């Protein structure tokens, strides 16, 4: 019998179902650790079950949902063969998007596509997701690992996730709460987070730098800096939203598009947020990317978070209580600017209006950045 006439099995096509089963066994305990009494059925069912009877205490519960991935940051994890931190990036990108409206996360599911299932690698990814879910109070109720030989290389993978949360209707945060006189409070990022890695990787590649290169300005190897997990703002932001002294109007998660574009999404039409670029020092990793690739500041601020990972818009008297609360939670915070009537384009400012399909307000950016 010729090779062309040999029997074809799923295994010979490149899919190892037994490896998938082993991966599930390795991750089960980590996933179970995110389950409270509301989760029914355990691990391995066709659907994750969550007892929503607690929602009956809500007068008008609104469900909030989000889905996202971590972009090409997975290429750094694969190159370094470090897979237990990328889950924090995934949870940060997904869960903290629903926190923006004041929603408390309830459940999350994940999806991993890979060229070849290596049980230990898949389990490491899921353990990271589970650890981040536990930190944010989110139950990891299901997931899928798909083996795609021929589409992805044996050591390649991508991850995505989706989460659902709930918020009482009269506690919903949003642009409609924002008023002239409000204050914009910045929350420090932990580094690059999970956006702009196509730019960062290209800069590093053209410079010929290896991931094990020690960078004095960073105080560690380049690869370790690039893999720094996304900061999770979930619980500090929810605590802040519940604090009447903070007068929280809305949050803005600084992800793809940078600070101004994401802040403009939560400013209503007719108002403008005035942001002073010089009120914080841009962390060294961002200045490294800029200098190494001769990246213009304008391009950098449209791509990376530049040290601000989340923003809160609070009432005029809410800035000091908000900053104190965030710092007590271990997050550096400071006043970024104020909100006022949109009176056109002040001289010496850069202007961003609306973003990502939102017909929103305006952000004025003034002064230059201070590099660390």
UniProtKB/TrEMBL annotation:
<dbReference type="Pfam" id="PF00586">
    <property type="entry name" value="AIRS"/>
</dbReference>
<dbReference type="InterPro" id="IPR010918">
    <property type="entry name" value="PurM-like_C_dom"/>
</dbReference>
<keyword id="KW-0436">Ligase</keyword>
<keyword id="KW-0547">Nucleotide-binding</keyword>
<feature type="domain" description="PurM-like N-terminal">
    <location>
        <begin position="62"/>
        <end position="167"/>
    </location>
</feature>
<dbReference type="GO" id="GO:0005829">
    <property type="term" value="C:cytosol"/>
</dbReference>
<dbReference type="GO" id="GO:0004637">
    <property type="term" value="F:phosphoribosylamine-glycine ligase activity"/>
</dbReference>
<dbReference type="Pfam" id="PF02769">
    <property type="entry name" value="AIRS_C"/>
</dbReference>
<comment type="pathway">
    <text>Purine metabolism; IMP biosynthesis via de novo pathway; 5-amino-1-(5-phospho-D-ribosyl)imidazole from N(2)-formyl-N(1)-(5-phospho-D-ribosyl)glycinamide: step 2/2.</text>
</comment>
<dbReference type="GO" id="GO:0005524">
    <property type="term" value="F:ATP binding"/>
</dbReference>
<keyword id="KW-0067">ATP-binding</keyword>
<comment type="similarity">
    <text>Belongs to the AIR synthase family.</text>
</comment>
<dbReference type="GO" id="GO:0046084">
    <property type="term" value="P:adenine biosynthetic process"/>
</dbReference>
<dbReference type="InterPro" id="IPR036676">
    <property type="entry name" value="PurM-like_C_sf"/>
</dbReference>
<dbReference type="InterPro" id="IPR036921">
    <property type="entry name" value="PurM-like_N_sf"/>
</dbReference>
<dbReference type="GO" id="GO:0004641">
    <property type="term" value="F:phosphoribosylformylglycinamidine cyclo-ligase activity"/>
</dbReference>
<keyword id="KW-0963">Cytoplasm</keyword>
<protein>
    <recommendedName>
        <fullName>Phosphoribosylformylglycinamidine cyclo-ligase</fullName>
        <ecNumber>6.3.3.1</ecNumber>
    </recommendedName>
</protein>
<dbReference type="GO" id="GO:0006189">
    <property type="term" value="P:'de novo' IMP biosynthetic process"/>
</dbReference>
<dbReference type="InterPro" id="IPR016188">
    <property type="entry name" value="PurM-like_N"/>
</dbReference>
<dbReference type="InterPro" id="IPR004733">
    <property type="entry name" value="PurM_cligase"/>
</dbReference>
<keyword id="KW-0658">Purine biosynthesis</keyword>
<feature type="domain" description="PurM-like C-terminal">
    <location>
        <begin position="179"/>
        <end position="344"/>
    </location>
</feature>
């Amino acid at each position: 019998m010729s090779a062309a006439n040999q029997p074809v099995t799923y295994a010979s096509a490149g899919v190892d179902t037994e490896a998938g089963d082993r991966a599930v066994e390795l991750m089960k305990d980590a996933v179970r650790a995110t389950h409270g009494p509301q989760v029914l059925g355990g691990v391995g069912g066709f659907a994750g079950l969550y007892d929503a009877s607690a929602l009956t205490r809500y007068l008008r519960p609104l469900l909030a949902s989000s889905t996202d991935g971590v972009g090409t940051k997975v290429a750094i994890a694969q190159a370094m063969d470090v897979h237990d931190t990328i889950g924090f990036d995934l949870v940060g990108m997904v869960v903290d998007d629903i926190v923006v409206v004041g929603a408390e996360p309830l459940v999350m599911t994940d999806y991993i596509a890979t060229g070849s299932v290596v049980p230990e690698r898949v389990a490491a990814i899921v353990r990271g997701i589970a650890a981040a879910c536990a930190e944010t109070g989110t139950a990891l109720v299901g997931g899928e690992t798909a083996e795609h030989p021929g589409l992805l290389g044996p050591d390649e993978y991508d991850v995505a996730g989706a989460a659902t949360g709930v918020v009482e209707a009269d506690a919903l945060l949003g642009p409609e709460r924002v008023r002239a006189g409000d204050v914009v409070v910045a929350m420090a990022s932990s580094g690059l987070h999970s956006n702009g890695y196509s730019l960062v990787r290209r800069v590093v590649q053209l410079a010929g730098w290896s991931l094990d290169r020690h960078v004095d300005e960073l105080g560690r190897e380049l690869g370790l800096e690039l893999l720094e997990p996304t900061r999770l703002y979930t619980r500090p932001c929810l605590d802040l939203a519940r604090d009447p002294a903070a007068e929280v109007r809305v949050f803005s998660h600084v992800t793809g598009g940078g600070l101004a574009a994401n802040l403009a999404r939560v400013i209503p039409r007719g108002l403008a947020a005035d942001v002073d670029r010089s009120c914080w020092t841009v962390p060294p990793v961002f200045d490294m990317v800029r200098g190494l690739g001769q990246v213009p500041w304008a391009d950098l601020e449209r791509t990376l978070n530049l040290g601000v990972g989340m923003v809160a818009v609070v009432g005029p008297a809410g800035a000091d209580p908000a900053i104190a609360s965030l710092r007590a939670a271990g997050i550096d915070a400071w006043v970024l600017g104020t909100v006022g009537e949109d009176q056109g384009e002040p001289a010496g400012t850069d202007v961003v209006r609306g973003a990502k399909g939102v017909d929103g307000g305006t952000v004025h950016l003034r002064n230059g950045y201070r590099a660390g």
